[in-house]
Amino acid sequence: MRANFDKRTAWLATPCILALLACTAAARAMQLPTRETVVITDVTVVDVEGGHSTGPRTVLVDDGRIVSIEAPQDAHIPSSAQRVDGHGRFLIPGLVDMHVHLFNLSSHRPPNDWSFPLYVANGITGVREMRGDAPSMVLVNRWRKALEGGELIAPRILAAGISVHGSSPDDAAHQVDAAADAGADFIKVFSDVPASNWRAILAAAHGRSLPVVGHVPAGVPLLVAAAAGQRSNEHLMQAYEACSSIEAQLLQQRRDIDGDALTERRDTQEARTLNAFDPAICRGIARSLVVTGQVQVPTPVLADEDSMGKSGSPGTDPRRQFLRADERMRWQRFVASYTAQDAALAKLRWPIAHQIVSFMHQAGVPIMAGTDSPMPGVYPGFALHEEMELLVESGLTPREALYSATLEPARFLGIADTSGSVAVGKRADLVLLDADPTRDIHNARRINAVLLDGRLLRRADIDALLKQAASVQAP
Ligand SMILES: [Zn+2]
Fold it and tell me: Is the residue at 137 inside a domain?
């Protein structure tokens, strides 16, 4: 399979082989377009940070970069440029999903390259891959090169990390070194990491200049983890405890246990944790969190899917056609194992998640959009739009929701000089919308064109890409 990754048909290679279909001819039709000079005329440029949009503007893109943004009367348009009519349209930076899974390490299934066209079709030009291992890093680098070479229609993998647990603090530190040597961009920790190993991971990662991100472990208080330098926290892990009136008691009952026993203890405590939610305490936690600089990736879309039981009816969702067969089966198994108790807990959790995000946002805690795609019910690409809509429901303005999916991730990753906004000199990862997303975040779904690494995909190309993605998965 890996031998195929250098071909133009890379994202189709796995399903083609699995299905033993001769779909190479169709795949060739879906090559990434060549990088040309592109001019978007009379467009309104959305500033995701400054609070105002400017227009009309002529935006010139060449060799994968934005080379000028000018008033129409001042613009010089090369005759060779491909023209895109931006009149009445809105230009935003390419969207970023800060929590995706491209590998299936536990289940030993092939990587989720089937999801690549879905991200691009939804305007997602960058992702943070959340759980790889050393061989995954090799594949990530091949994908990066293939995108760069125009051989692969895929979002840019802005960062990819390796998860470390460790059998002891020493072992955890050694694993961090091995991950650094393998080229990981960060170390990911999960909830079941013992506090002692987690401290060793932080120290070792600091020594290798690697950020530690992921779930604040179930044995560590949120503020302690944030103050100790865990750079991002996913899914509001330990925030529910911190926002309850019984955090100390809950954590005390988790002492001296680790691994599965630790997360099982946490799960058995969950109803009690949620019932002890205290808004006043939560506001205080949010204010203390700001000082630490820890960034939250709350993934409300995941909590929402859970609470709405939407993943309970995957058979009726038209997007199901895009899922690879093994993924469809995984979702079905998940639904089959979902109990009434799970549903009741999710219903209790959802409004509290909503309030925690709201308090954090009000206090100024940095929030990044992330989805955990492809968790059951969370469709890659599409889900980031749901995520931004849910962030708006939690009190972010539409512009702030866009910021959480563009410039905030770029700043977090240290690439804001080249990404995250529509500005001269930045990479031409852009999305052209038919309506103003700062008026209504739902308008971010109204995609007219995507510039992926300076390569233009018009609406017809995007529709063809989706059609192709579905036909590849057809049984
Ligand atoms: Zn995840």
Answer: yes
- Nearest in space to 124 (alpha carbons), one of 154, 89, 99: 154
Q: How far is the CA of 298 from the centre of ligand 1 (A)?
A: 11
Model pTM above 0.85: yes
Cα atoms in the Cβ-side hemisphere of radius 13 Å centred on 266: 24
Task: Print the domain residue range for 225.
Answer: 95-417
**427 belongs to a structural domain:** no
404 close to 397: Cβ distance less than 8 angstroms: no
pLDDT computed for residue 313 by the predictor: 56
What mean pLDDT is reported for the chain? Answer: 91
The rounded Å distance from CA 161 to ligand 1 centre is: 12
Indicate whether 22 pLDDT > 60: no
Residue 352 lies in a domain: yes
* CA 423–ligand 1 middle distance (angstroms): 31
DSSP output for 337-394: H--HHHHHHHHHHHHHHHHHHHHHHHHT--B-----BTSTT--TTHHHHHHHHHHHHT
Question: Which pair of structure tokens corresponds to residue 247?
Answer: 């955090």
Q: Which two tokens stand for residue 193?
A: 């990491």
CA–CA distances in Å: residue 461 to residues 26, 286, 381, 445: 13, 44, 16, 16
Rounded to the nearest angstrom, the distance between the alpha carbon of 129 and the centre of ligand 1 is: 9
Number of separate domains in the chain = 1
For the residues 169-185, what does the mean pLDDT come to?
Answer: 98
What is the b/e burial string over 59-90, where b = at least 16 CB atoms within 10 angstroms of the residue's CB?
Answer: bbbbebbbebbeeeeebeeeeebeebebeebb
Q: Which residues surround ligand 1, an ion (CB under 5 A)?
A: 130, 372
Residue 8 has pLDDT above 70, yes or no: no
Query: 400-435, pLDDT tens digit by residue?
Result: 999 999 999 999 999 999 999 999 999 999 999 999
Query: What is the per-residue pLDDT across 46-74, written as a single tens digit (0 to 9) for each?
Result: 999 987 899 899 999 999 999 999 999 99
Mean pLDDT of 246-253: 97
CATH code of 364's domain: 3.20.20.140
What pLDDT is recorded for position 335? Answer: 85
Can you tell me the distance from the alpha carbon of 207 to that of 439, in angstroms, rounded to the nearest whole number? 45
Check residue 18 and give its pLDDT: 37
Residue 293 lies in a domain: yes
Task: For residue 34, report the distance from its CA to the centre of ligand 1, in Å.
Answer: 33
- 133 neighbors 140 (Cβ within 8 angstroms): no
Cα 370 to ligand 1 centre (Å): 9
Element (H, E) at 19: helix 10-19
Q: Is the pLDDT of residue 28 over 60?
A: no
Closest-CA residue to 383 (of 300, 284, 307, 469): 300
Residue 455 reports pLDDT greater than 80: yes
Q: What is the bridge-based pairing of β-strands 212-214 and 232-234?
A: parallel
> Residue 184 C-alpha to ligand 1 middle, in angstroms?
16
